[in-house]
Amino acid sequence: xxxxxxxxxxxTARLRPRAPFLFFERKTIRYRAFSExxxxxAGGFERAGIxxxxxxxLLLGNVPEFAETVFALLRLGAVLVPINHFLAPREIARLVxxxxxxxxxxxxxxxxxxxxxxxxxxxxxxVGGSGGEGRGRFEDLAGGEPVSPSAERPLPESIAxxxxxxxxxxxxxxxxxxxRNLTANARQCEEALGPGPSDRFLLFLPLFHTFTLxxxxxxxxxxxxxxxxxxxxxxxxxxxxxxxxxxxxSIFVGxxxxxxxxxxxxxxxxxxxxxxxxxxxxxxxxxxxxxxxAVEERFGAPxxxxxxxxxxxxxxxxxxxxxxxxxxxxxPLPGIEARVVGERGEGRMPGEVGExxxxxxxxxxxxxxxxxxxxxxxxxxxxxxxLDLQGFLTIHDRKKDVILVRGINVYPREIEEAIEEHxxxxxxxxxxARSEKKGEVPRAFVVPAEGIALSPAMILSHLRGRxxxxxxxxxxxxVSELPRGGTGKVLRRVLEERPLPDGSGA
Length: 506
Hints:
- There is one protein chain.
- By secondary structure, the protein is α/β, with parallel strands linked by helices.
- Among the domains are: 5-9 and 24-179, ANL, N-terminal domain (Rossmann fold), CATH 3.40.50; 402-496, GMP Synthetase, Chain A, domain 3, CATH 3.30.300.
- It has 14 helices and 26 strands.
- The strands form six sheets. The protein has an eight-stranded mixed β-sheet, with helices on both faces.
- Helix 1 (5-15) runs antiparallel to helix 2 and helix 2 (31-47) crosses helix 3.
- The model has no long low-confidence stretch (mean pLDDT 91).
């Protein structure tokens, strides 16, 4: 029988009741206890009037209550709307207005972020604090009877999540993912990566993102594995000791910003020698080959780069433990078809660059508002890619990010990787700029490594001989940091909007 997310958790709890599901701070929460609490919280939401199809927004950090809320609401067939808590109050208000939730579940420390958000129909449930006018206490939800057996359950085609894209190129789009999409993607990841019940997934990335939800929450629940839950990666050295030495995490899930830091940081001797990490996974943005090699040398475990997008649930491809190719994001997951096409939809030959199209059960069928992301059965990703004869996928850039220099396509990622080969560089981003004399030209923003003095001239000197002259940035700016979204993606539109500097051109 085709399962929904809620049934997957209940089945795992039945088969592995005593197995640990969540490790959080000093707590160990086992599958049976977690499942029983989820059913009581679902009963509380049911008594609060939440029904199948209702939308509920979540404004929570990485705490067990986030996972409890997710599974409780999915049991009722409600639609979860995770909100990026790194946004400003005005941005949050705009997303909430678009989502039209009947209820908001928010951490007490995040209530100020709702300052510009109109009160939803059923008010706000506060996690970790007291209630009040228009507000209820989260703990009160778990104080009554479990959800009634007669309560409607979701169907595989029922919408489970309304997720907003990162908005790196403009207005975030609302993506509607069904239980079928999410369970399919979790199963695809299981088949490709081979995790098992004895594994412990390290979860420190924000839970509001689809990558974290699918890979670090739904996948472990599906296979009976454990989750080492951390509030954040702010105190990373402490996190490493606690999660790797005490909680013994075995699967490390991160983003390039984390792995780039690990490639440069001093990893404590005991962590390097005593950890039991057997697999490291990277997603959400490109990762340089230099960072991969450095991290693998330090940890002695494979770092598997993958690729995905929200509309695909999100994972599309990933390198495998025994099937890897440097510089690629691996083959598509089992059950996902991929093709590369030209401007007129004609198929590209192996190695040729074109737009990536994908098809599979994991692909969303609708955006918020009813528009479908799928055309003739295929999702147009907007990413420029190539497929080799062995089926490995290489992502060259976003179609919208390509810079047309004197009629020649220039890929920002290629320039960024060349810049990041400089030992004094911590990170780089390249965007399009317009020159009165040359038309479109590359413009680079470079972050120096800590304590290092870096100049535009040093970067330009480093690039000469590494890149063709037309690819060398016309403008190089040294900055203290790059603007990023909640999952580490560079906000290119923010960089493109910055005024051009004087005197920094090549």
